[in-house]
Structure formats: structure tokens, C-alpha cells
Amino acid sequence: MIEKKLIEILINFYNHSFTIIDNDEKVIYWSKRASEIFNLKNEDVVGKDIKEIFSEDQLLILDSLRKNQSFEKKRHQATPDIYVDIKAEPIHHDGKVLGAVVSEIDVTAQIKREKELEDLKNKVSILSDNVKHLHNDNHFKNIIYKSSIMENLKNQIEKAAKTNANILITGETGVGKELFAQAIHNVSQLDGDFIPLNCGAIPNDLFESELFGYDRGAFTGANKEGNQGKIELSENGTLFLDEIGEMPLEMQVKFLRILQERKYFKLGGKKEQTTNFRLVSATNKVIAELLSSDDFRSDLLYRINVINIHIPPLRERPDDIESLFYYYLFQLSEKYQTKLLYADQQLLQEIRQYEWPGNVRELINVVERLVIFSSGSTLDNNIFHQYLEEVGQSRNFSTYSLPPDDLQLKDYIDQVEADYIRQVIESNDSNIEKSSRILGISRPTLYAKIKKFNL
């Protein structure tokens, strides 16, 4: 009696589960740990054919019994939440196989630690890349990227900045056009300053004095000493005109003359001024839209658009999203003096798949919310979900589950690739040109993959 009790204690002493079947493939022993892992009571299992309880293709113990061999299997997903390492052995007596035993060791905590360590390595690597971008290239300070698209754009800017040609930066709201204008100025290494002016933020009646400056007594309420305009302040430097499409029509004629002759009069002034500045402009409008507009002179557009630098939206460079996310997470955590929390895989996947219509500016706002309101050990996914509801965006992102144990790596990669390509094509109304641009591959390559995966 004591021997039986001792065996029972020893079997359940460690964090192992044990299952024993006889040669009729019926369960004759089911340990307490097995009950905990599979959430099945002893009376629900013992005496039953094991194939009635589990799928036959998942039962290593049957292979051991039928083939009279020992088997091992690493990292088997026993349940949605539990991973085990398995070892199965046949039971012999007098040369006969009487049954088989399988032992399962719960390795969920170990896998979780390994995953957390891997995630941490990835996050540290991303942050290191961001810091490297900041410190190795002072000209492009605060422009965080990882994608080849942005690397090509950086090379384009470096070439353009070495000339004195006028540059027009185009791109959607929130892509950071002023940062790129500042980068152009930095690369140019001009003696003067970088002077920005937002054309959409200046009232029409103040625009001329803001841009040209004024002499003393030019108008009632004017500074007695007069005032320098943005043109004068940008002498031998860079004048950055943001939202240039909003420049008043009557000012466009005067500004065109400055670009042609490099001469102007201050408001109320009698002495003609000469000027030398590098012009960089920006607009969130499409060039064709400006050309067809009655509110913007085409001759001015041709003057300012000698070189066009287009900043692609965030949705077209998904490789940059995670780098930007972690960069601003680090910055804003320091700003608010909060503990640096990380995102779990679900949140990272949803952030990568969201289209970010407000681009980097919107991403910064979301990160700021996450930093301020998250209070657990990781960033609170619900805060992002609440934001999506607030802006009327769907949460119907595709998610990828762990692959079956018998699926080879190549097949799983093909499956993930096919799912992602299908999602991009569907979300862009089967527009192959747009889909290939977002995926970063050529149209012929995309057509080949559509054929390969039978999409």
C-alpha cells in the first residue's frame, strides 16, 4: 500500500504530467498535472480509448506503442495557453509491449521568458538604430526611418541640397515636411539661418509685412524702429515657406519678382533691398491640383518646383512605423517622467497595420496617450482601441496564429506572405499599381506572386 502511495507522490512531485495506456490503447493512468494541463478530470479519461479524447495525429504515445520506439517532441502546444516538451516510451515485460507512457513537461514559462528576452532584444535593437540615426547623421536629426524608401529619399535630399535650386517638398499632412526642410538646410551648410513661415497661419493683411518687413512709421501701430521680414532674416540662409499653396494671390506676384530679380521693397520703404536666400517650400497639395487652381499662379509654381522632394505617407513605408513608435515612446516617457513600458505583439501588429491617415503627427499623438494613461506592466492596448473608435476606424486587422507543429517554416512563411498580399490588394480595391508600391515590389513580381499563391 505504501509503495503505491509513494509512486503516486513521486509521479506528481515535479511539474510533469504522465499518461499511461495499455496495449488496447485505453488510458489506465492519468496524473494530476495532466488533469491541470488539459482540464480533464481523471474519471473523464481513465478507461477510455485515448483516441476518443485526443486527435490521433497529435498522440506521440500511440507511435511509441505501435512502433515499439521512444519518441521526443519539443515545444508542442498542448492547449492554446500551454506548451510542453514530450517524451513517450513503450512499456515492456517479458519481451512483450504491454503499453506506453508519455511524460509532458510544462515549458510555457520558459518559452514566455525566451519570447520576452527576444522581444527585448528587438526593442533594444530598434532603439539603438534610432539613436544611431540621430548621432551618426546630425544633418537628419529627428528623422527616424528604417525603410529603403526613406534611405533613397535621404540620398535624393543630399544631392539636391548641394545645389542652389529651389525645392518644393510635397506630402500629406503630418509627414514632417518641416523636418526635411531643416535637413536640406543642414546639408547645404549655409552661413545664414533657417527661417520658417507658415503661409496658412498669416492673415492676408499682415502677410506682406511678415514676409518683407517694414520701415518705421509704415502703418499705425507699427514698431517705431521698423521690423525685419522673413526674407531679410533668411539672408544667406534658407527661407522655408510651409503651406505655400495658401499664399495670398496678390502676394504671389510680388514674391515671383523677388525670385526673378532678387530685389524687393520693405513695406513703407523707399530703398530697394537686395537678397540672397535658399528657398524651400512645402505643400500638402498635389502638383496637378495647384496647376489647375485659380488661386495659385502656375508661373510661380514652375519657379518654386525646380526640384520636387515627395515624402511618402506612413502607410506606404510600414517598416518605419515600429522605429518611429519606439523612438517617440522613449522620448515621451522621458518627457512625462514615466516608466518606459513596451507594447505586446498584438499592439505592435495593430499599430503596423493601421493606415495612419494623419501620418507621423497622428502616431506621436497616439504614443503620447499610451504613455500618459498606461499603468500596467505593458502599454494598454485598450487605449489604442478607444482611439480607433474615436476616429471611426475599424479594428478588423488580420492576425496570425501560431502554425501547426507539422507545418514547415517555408510553408508557414508562404502562408503569411499570401495572407498579407491578399490583405493589401483587398484594402486597395485590387489596384495592382498601388498595392505593389505599398508592398515595395514591382508589378510583374506582384503578378507572379498572385499566380503563385492563387490569389
UniProtKB/TrEMBL annotation:
Q: Which residues form the PAS domain?
A: 3-57
The organism's superkingdom is given as Bacteria
> Might you name a Gene Ontology BP term for this protein?
regulation of DNA-templated transcription
Which Gene3D superfamilies does this UniProt record tie to the protein?
1.10.8.60, Homeodomain-like, P-loop containing nucleotide triphosphate hydrolases, PAS domain
Coiled-coil spans in chain: 117-170
Xref: Pfam families: AAA_lid_14, HTH_8, PAS_9, Sigma54_activat
Is this entry keyworded Transmembrane helix?
no
The organism is: Lacicoccus qingdaonensis
Name of the protein in question: PAS domain S-box-containing protein
Picking any one GO molecular function of the record gives: sequence-specific DNA binding
The residues covered by the Sigma-54 factor interaction domain are 143-372
Q: Is Magnesium one of the keywords?
A: no
Keywords recorded for this protein, A-Z? ATP-binding, Coiled coil, DNA-binding, Nucleotide-binding, Transcription, Transcription regulation
**CDD domains given for it?**
AAA, PAS
